[in-house]
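Journal club side-thread
Mid-discussion, someone asked how the predicted structure for our own chain would compare to the paper's figures. Pasting it here so we can look after the session.
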Amino acid sequence: MFDADFFKTHAIAQLEEMGAGSTTLEIHLERREIYLVHRIVAIYPGYVILEVYPAEGVDDDSRSKRMRGGEVVWDRIAVPYSAIEMAFMSVTEPEIAVVGFRGKIAGLSV
């Protein structure tokens, strides 16, 4: 079962071991939805807030449409831990055009 400790401790350790800048993190939900994570925004006792890439992928056009104040703004989703079926980390290229896990996990640089 996934919980806050997984995201605060175990996910960070695995991403660092695999090479955070080149590792993709996918979160698979029980409803068969898959989210490719750009950043873990916040970790709470019952859920995690994820910044995710759009399902259609990322290109220069989609980046420019998401620019706000000089930064790209990605979609966010609050996911209850009970809905997470699997967390998949890989150093292989994702099926959509994005590059690796980026940035911070709940304020911790990875």
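Post-session note: The helical segments are 4-18, 60-65.
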